């Protein structure tokens, strides 16, 4: 099984700071969505209750009163929708304010964590570069030593070879070529 690299403390701190920030922003969004849904439910309940009430009045009134009651339905619905719009604008303004406060709370910690992480990465990069440089120097020294030993061995072999050739007599007999020798023999016989 391969060894998986573990996160440095700075990396864990940075990730934790990011997660805390995202968690709080998510809470803000969900809280806003909840308030938005509550406002929708209230407006729908209000409009439905008003419509049921007016419908019952129409059913129990004379035709002339029914027209008057029917004309009164539009006014409360418009007021309810205007109140709903104002409530929604207020909900979104509060949400924006909450998200800004959340960001304001988390930015210093997140920034510091990021700064620490960058410093940590720079330090690890410098250490890795120094280790690689040291390994390169060691490899160079090893190769240089091998080359020096090989050269020394070659020189020692070369001097021994010269001493061996100096102790052996040099023969000056030319090597005869079998074809040339047979051609010369045929001319001599002719």
Automatic annotation (TrEMBL):
Annotated Phasin domain ranges read 14-107
The superkingdom of the source organism is Bacteria
Where are stretches of biased composition, namely Low complexity? Answer: 180-190
The region called Disordered is annotated at 156-190
- What residue spans carry the Polar residues bias annotation? 156-175
Q: Which residues form the signal peptide?
A: none
Q: Which InterPro entries match?
A: Phasin (IPR018968)
Task: Report what the protein is called.
Answer: Phasin family protein
Protein source organism: Noviherbaspirillum pedocola
């Amino acid at each position: 099984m391969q060894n998986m690299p573990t996160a440095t403390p700075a990396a864990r701190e940075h990730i934790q700071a990011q997660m805390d920030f995202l968690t709080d922003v998510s809470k803000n969004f969900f809280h806003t969505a909840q308030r938005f849904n509550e406002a929708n439910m209230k407006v729908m309940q209000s409009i439905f209750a008003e419509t049921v009430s007016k419908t019952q009045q129409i059913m129990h009134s004379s035709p002339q009163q029914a027209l008057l009651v029917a004309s009164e339905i539009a006014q409360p619905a418009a007021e309810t929708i205007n109140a709903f719009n104002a409530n929604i604008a207020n909900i979104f303004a509060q949400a924006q304010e909450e998200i800004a406060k959340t960001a304001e709370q988390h930015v210093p910690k997140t920034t510091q964590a990021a700064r620490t992480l960058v410093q940590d990465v720079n330090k690890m990069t410098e250490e890795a570069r120094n280790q690689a440089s040291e390994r390169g120097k060691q490899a160079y020294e090893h190769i240089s030593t091998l080359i020096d030993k090989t050269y020394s061995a070659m020189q020692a072999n070369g001097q021994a070879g010269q001493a061996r050739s100096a102790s052996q007599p040099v023969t000056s007999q030319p090597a005869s070529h079998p074809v040339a020798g047979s051609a010369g023999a045929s001319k001599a016989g002719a």
